[in-house]
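STRUCTURE:
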């Protein structure tokens, strides 16, 4: 029985149900008829709907901290966009909803684009906050992100107190090693620096301090110039 809250506004459109086998087009059609539904994904043609309540310490607070850091980075990086839980047309039978997405704008040489309000293609950087969804996020979704050419995938396993940055290298994901100070540094988005230990303990001031160091770095300044050159059609040279 579908809750009346989630009944499609158009009675002629069937509701989304967990386990449905659909195309992206039919998935979008059914979801758009259910305006109260906030989270659903299509992975390899199968609908996934997380029925678990979102706990404060398992999802809400870590998600907010990730958004805080990444939106701050985008604010200081003209040409990089940050979004929370966008639906992404990633493959003909897949439309996941990553927790956080960072993408280089199309006019600055980005790999994805916006069509009808949706992200289409593989953004440069995605993040998943994993607790009850850990097996899913590190299994079928990780495989999807790899196939789609997502250059970097940050997974925060809340229950294991572990943050891993996967980097796409020749068709495989490898774990990025932190530097001697324990800092993870993005390769695809220079200047995007994370202190995993600070994030896990919820130390926002330390998270901001490390991010500020990345934003002030010479590689970040060069990256900003590169994006400006691309937008102006001046090529790759900073």
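SEQUENCE:
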């Amino acid at each position: 029985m579908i809750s009346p809250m989630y009944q499609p506004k158009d009675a002629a459109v069937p509701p989304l149900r967990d386990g449905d086998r659909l195309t992206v087009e039919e998935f979008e059609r059914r979801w758009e008829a259910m305006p109260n539904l906030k989270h659903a994904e299509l992975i390899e043609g199968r609908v996934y709907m997380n029925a678990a309540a979102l706990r404060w310490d398992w999802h809400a607070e870590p998600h907010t901290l990730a958004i805080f850091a990444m939106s701050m980075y985008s604010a200081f990086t003209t040409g990089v966009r940050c979004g929370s839980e966008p639906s992404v047309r990633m493959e003909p039978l897949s439309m996941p909803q990553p927790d956080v997405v960072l993408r280089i704008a199309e006019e600055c040489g980005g790999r994805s684009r916006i069509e009808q309000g949706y992200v289409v293609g593989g953004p440069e950087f995605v993040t998943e906050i994993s607790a009850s969804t850990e097996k899913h996020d590190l299994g079928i979704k990780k495989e999807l992100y790899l196939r789609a050419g997502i250059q970097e995938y940050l997974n925060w396993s809340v229950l294991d107190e572990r943050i891993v940055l996967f980097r796409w290298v020749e068709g495989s994901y490898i774990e990025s090693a932190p530097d001697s100070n324990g800092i993870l540094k993005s390769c695809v988005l220079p200047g995007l620096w994370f202190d995993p230990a600070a994030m896990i303990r919820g130390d926002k001031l330390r998270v901001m301090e490390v991010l500020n160091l990345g934003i002030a770095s010479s590689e970040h300044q060069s990256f900003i110039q590169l994006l400006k050159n691309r937008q102006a059609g001046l090529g790759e040279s900073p």
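REMARK: The mean pLDDT is 91.
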